[in-house]
Write a structure and sequence with these properties.
Elements: H1 2-9, H2 19-28, H3 35-45, H4 55-65, H5 68-74, H6 85-115
Helix pairs in contact: 1-2, 5-6
């Protein structure tokens, strides 16, 4: 999952990935592209020009560069044969957002149980 890769590679726990952390997170997720393309996307999606990516910027890059069909199939989504890549990306984005929501909810329940 993209959140896992982000959190694992955010070595300093800043909530941001620098270029090296971003490269490692992309490799962890199986995004196989050249360093030049990784660098291009890092700068394209660094919306605030901080030289760092927050999770949402990272997620946008992942959706853009990953094998979207494969990611959907890994999540047990029945992917139609003839569908636009843009549609597949939107489907993956929605699924990632839902996964993030479920993960946050589970964390809240876990924390509540610890506090009682």
């Amino acid at each position: 999952m993209a959140t896992d890769a982000f959190e694992m590679m955010d070595e300093d726990r800043s909530g941001f990935l620098d270029e090296d952390e971003y490269r490692y997170a992309s490799e962890y997720l199986g995004v196989e592209i050249t360093d030049e393309i990784l660098e291009k996307y890092f700068h394209k999606y660094d919306y605030n020009y901080a030289g760092l990516l927050d999770y949402f910027e990272f997620r946008d890059i992942f959706i853009e560069l990953c094998d979207v069909r494969k990611q959907l199939e890994l999540r047990k989504v029945d992917v139609p044969s003839f569908v636009r890549k843009k549609t597949l990306r939107l489907m993956l984005r929605d699924l990632l957002i839902e996964e993030e929501r479920k993960e946050r909810r589970a964390l809240v329940w876990f924390l509540l149980i610890l506090m009682t």
